[in-house]
Specification:
Chain lengths: 257, 603
Amino acid sequence: MKFRSHTRWLTWGISLFLGIDLSIHAQTNAVEVGFQAANAQVAAGKFAEGKAQYSQLPTGEKTSVALEYNRGVAHSRLGEVGQARAHWLLAERLAPRNPAVQNALHRSSGPGTTPAAEPFDSPLSWTDALTLNEWGALALILTWFWGAMLLLGRGKPSFAAALRGYTLGAGLLAVVSVGLLAGAWARRARLPDAIVLRPETLVRVSPLDEARGAFSLAEGVRVRSQAARAGWFLVEDPLTRRFGWVKSEALLRLPLQ
Amino acid sequence: MRYSRPNFRSSANTLRLSRWLLSLLGFFLALQLRAEPSFTTELDRERVNAGDTATLKLIFTDLGEVEAPTLPALTNCTIRYQGVSRQLSIVNFTRSSSIIHQYSLQPQNPGTVSIPGLQVEVDGKTYTSQPLTLQVGQGINMESIGFLRLVAPRSEFYVGETFPLEIRFYYREAPARQAPPTLKLDGFIKGRQTVENLPPETLTNVLYSVVRWSLALTAVKAGELTLGPAEFQTLYLFNNPGRRRARGVEALFEPLLGGAEQKQHAFQSDSLTLRVLNPPAAGRPANFNGAVGRFRVEVTASPTNVAAGDPVTVRVQVSGQGNIEGLRLPELPAGSGFQLYPGTNSFTEGDSLGLSGIKTFEAVIVPEVPGVQSLKWPWLTYWDPGAKAYAADQPRPLVLNVRPGANAQAQPVGTVPGPPEPRTPPTSVAATAELALLQELGPLASLAASPVTQPWFWGVLGFPLAVYAALVLAPILRQQRAEDPKRTARQQARRELTKYTNALRERAHQGQGPQFFAALNGALQQQLALTLGGPPGSFTDDVVETRLVPAGLPPEAAERLQDLFNRLAEARFSPTVSAGELPHLRERAEQVLAAVRQLPEAT
């Protein structure tokens, strides 16, 4: 009896796993098919149709580097600079070393796009080569490795002397990696976190439709933002330090990745 | 018969009038009395410094009109006739009339100048003056007090180049008054000027204070040009012990001048010869308009997405060093597709002389042709005197997306921008036209914020180190506890006190009298053990007067503590309480515990 009960549970488990796996596979397959169809539309010069098809892919809250990159291309062909750059920046968040994404961002930040394109260099700019997740994983591995060495030396004092050099080296690497993780995080937190999607977006002095316009932001400009009121963002232009309110649909906030 | 009273008033007036007439008569008689004719000489001072002047007066009294005599040559002294004056005086009813001829004496070297007795013959009679002596001191060498210098950064400049020139005044003694220095300029234009005190300098073992005037000069013609000399007018006051005390009107002003001798002196610098060249004709760019220095140009425009015919505000910023304030906005070339309407310009100086800074031109351009327009602002060419070469700086081209004018509607300020309309891609986007699509979808990933931003990540990161720290620290803490039993006992007492205090609140809330008094007793004993030392349970109300009050417990708190001890004693025999007494007791107990806690703990 006991054996039969176990077999039943096992059967149920395998069926559930297969069901979930098949469902995921089917969903991924649908995304893949839709993605290729959208690519074909864009390749055929039907940029608006391709753009719409990309946005309707059933990816849930997930996305991919290629999807964001291609969406950016479709928007750029339609002259929507801000939208294009926004998608490329999202792709860059996922894959900062992807040459296609870098190339697209570089070309889109040419003369005339923004008053001064990407003036956000700092001594820690090179940390942008890795995502925050990658920096976090590196710091986690090195810190746990160091902790393991310390615990090993504590548990087996005979190993402690032999492992001293390795422990010191691992400790140094762990401290450096955690420091770089903190630095990369601090740098990203200070960077403008939103991008203007519409040309000549009017920035108002208060979050009201009737409010007076203070200044305007060019399309594709990156700004610092704060969601302080429903439907409105409080934004600051990092170049001029002017601030005001912008309607939420004119802005895309980038995740801290 | 009529009696008439004598008129005494009339007699007194007659007497007063007689006296007045007699005085007037005496005065006119006195005018007829003349003093004895005489000839005297007088110096206004007995001692002068070499180079200074003294005044010699020849006074002819009641000798009539006497011509100015020629003085004999005096050794080591220059004599100049200054003029004649007349003087009439009446002393003791004696009238005298004097003619005074004045001469200035200027001794050249220290020593003594002897003025012999002078003889004049008037109406056949010879008059002789007394001899005089003038002591001549060392004097003041103004060159040793200070000097003026002109300092230029180089000896060779270019026409149109702006450079700083310094006039430095080195001095050992500050003048009482001064006028700003003047400078002879030929071929230069003077700009801004500043003055400042510099730290003292030692030159040839002498410490000089230094004041510096800085001027911005711009060379305007070529050639060997002479700059200077600079002249600095000063007024010095010197104490002169040999000066004769002032008389007459001069004496009125002596207190104001302090009895000091005034000396006006103009310090003069040497001239500088500067070579001013024209920028060479060879290799001169066609659009060179005389800018000399080193410059950078930046151009920005707003808005960049407009309809044809709409105005675009352009900001041209020229920064750098040189004659930047005099720069002009370059003209747009014909056929550029834009109309230029010059606007305002401003200059923000980078230094006090305006030799560097930022000149900002604001102009309006109107695009005439729809489409993506690239506006290349003309090169700013200039002669770089440092590199001795022509250089140019051209800002990045402005790219404007110009929509057809027929559809264009100026967006009024204060309206919400409408939904995006189909747009002409700007060149930056056109540059991305050849971007190829990626064909591989790749793995799907979440774009949520990184786990690094979550607190749990840092907990996981530090977990092995926390375990290691616990393993290392635990034995150390255990050992510390073993080595310091008093400290352990205090920690134990604190824990117990917290436990009893919490129990007080609970029992008071639940109205459990016996348990409340047990907790109250426990809390008091633990707090007293912490404050006074010793085992809990050993303290009675005696400690209030004998130990707590001398330790500084306030009388009110001491009284309440005594009451609590009394209530505890009663509760041993009668633990029942009335409704509402327990919360009141708890509140008082907490106040007393807080007061005892303020006292220093036993060590």
